[in-house]
Amino acid sequence: MTNEEYRRYAGRHMPRSHAGRNCLGAFLVGGAICCLGQLLLNLYGGWGLSEREAATAASVTLVFLGAALTGLGVYDDLARLGGAGTLVPITGFANSVAAPALEFKTEGLITGTAAKMFVIAGPVIVFGVGSSVLYGLLLCLLGG
To answer: If I label 105, which of 52, 53, 54, 59 is the partner at 20 to 30 A Cα–Cα?
Structure first.
């Protein structure tokens, strides 16, 4: 079999890409989560909270919803539909903390839930804090 024949053969048997469908799902689900966040922000602002307080309350609510939906098993179904659209908003962070905690709860409170809770989110926190410290130092050194 020549290289060209092999390419044609492989092309016929290669699974088709679902990139378009995945991008659409991520856009719709991630957009819906962001719209919910904006709705919460407007709602809390309408209740008399300052912009900063409303943003904090909306973030806390989204984290709570992400963790609660993970605990109920709903967030996994949402993630299958929305892919990266569920990972990028703050609800994805809540899911990355709650999911391992639930998965390892049978190993006990300390060695299971507490020890495994930050398996996924831990590196994100470490590199987030580290990069913010580095950014702050650079900003101080450059006089910004």
So the answer is: 59
Hey, where are the domains in the chain? 19-141
Tell me the pLDDT tens digit for each residue of 110-128.
877 777 878 878 888 888 8
pTM, whole model, 2 decimals? Answer: 0.74
Show Cβ contacts of residue 98 under 8 Å, excluding neighbours closer than 6 positions. 66, 67, 70, 71
CA distance 132 to 138: 10
> With the CA atoms of 22, 58, 40 and 73 taken in that order, what torsion angle do they form, in degrees rounded to the nearest 10?
50
d(CA 60, CA 40): 10
> Measuring CA to CA, how many Å separate 54 from each of 51, 65, 91, 114?
5, 16, 17, 30
What is the distance between the alpha carbons of residues 90 and 4, in angstroms, rounded to a whole number?
48
Instruction: Decide which of 78 and 103 is more confident.
Output: 78
